[in-house]
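Researcher: I'd like a structural prediction for the single chain below. Treat it as a standalone chain; there are no partners to consider.
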Amino acid sequence: MQYQIEMMEIGSIAIFAAYNLVLFSQVRKKYYLYLGLLSFFMFLRATLVDDGSMIFYAFFPDFSLALGRKIEFFSSYAGAPLSVLFSYTLYPNLKTKKYITAFIAISCVFLLVVIFTSYSFFYNTLYAYQFVILGSYVLMFIVLIKAVMDKSVGAMFILSGTAMSFLFVMAELLKIAGVIYIDAGPNLVNTGFVIFLFLQSIGLSEIFASSFKENQELNKNLEKRVNEKTSEISRASLLRDTLIRIVSHDIRGPMSNLKSVITLVREDQVGIDQAKEFMGTIDKGVDHTIQMLDELMEWGHAASQNKRIQQEDIVLKEIIDPAVTQANPNIASKDLSFKLSGDTNAVCLFDKNALKVIIRNLLSNGVKFTEKGGSVEMKIEKRSTDILIKVIDSGIGIPDEMKSHLFEMKKDNKRPGTENEKSSGVGLFICNDLITQNDGTLSVMDNPTGKGTIFSFTLKQAS
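Model: Treating it as a single chain, here is the predicted structure.
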């Protein structure tokens, strides 16, 4: 029975040694190396000690007994520094570093004595080395108790295993010293070490599981950052393409017209009255271009990776009133009726510059695509957690084929107003993008009256 127990213990230690050394070769964590080497040397010791089966000699009957003793003592002496290194690399404690360094140096001296002296000499160091073993446990307990107090992952299992092995090692040392008498039974150091390894494996499993979970979270965060960077690159590319398109078509046109008029006036090919007529047309185009540039610049800032939406408390009246004032000349020129209803003193949480662009653009669109004598209304509905703003017009509506891509950057979205007002085709795209960045939603529907369109979007209420 004793032999069978010993074989099970030796086999278990061998498995732990192989497992931890292989694991170290894969993950390169030093504590796996130290635990693997510790298990390996304890395995060697277990096959060589006198009060065991001395199974080593059963496999190698011609092996030198003197060399066997040297390996046995070296394996036993190597256990103390490896145990300390295992606990320290697992839970580094800078306060104990100098003591551990000194301890390792002392342990190495004993190991060198075993290597370079005869059995009759290094055998006499055994009792002195028992104090080294006690010192190793003191250092391990200091490191592990601190780790438990810091609530480090797996520390309680590692400490429990160390405490159990300490009891068995102390019992074995007392038995060797003749202080206590234990009749028969397996070697206590082997038994204690198997219990130690079992609890270490639980503690290391906790650490491995925790590391795996952290890696999963890290991968998720990394994936999120990659997606964010990809989105930023896409937005930057879209901004570039949009600006190129606007500059090449919508800005170049008014500038070319202005250049042509200047050339004609300079060469006396047109009179002053005719030049003024031309300038009136160009003036409207320049106004349109300036407004469009303002919107593009604001969107460009928001799309840039160097600037983020900055939400703040905004009284709607402060944004709506200037936009209405700016639209009044066009409202008057088309003889439109305009109505503003709802609580204009409502306070929302939004980016101020973005909201200016959105209100101005939606109101401008309502006026632009409404025929003379029609109506435009801006309605504010304060709800439980958000605010709904609607821009309702009685205009020409939106063709069905445009609705599916109305908020996209497409050339098909560009169409003139009822008085042939120019359109860049990017206004609704910019509005939708800015609203989305502010956690809102832009939607469009036909006016239930049968004529015109309703644009609506949501804003968060300020708390």
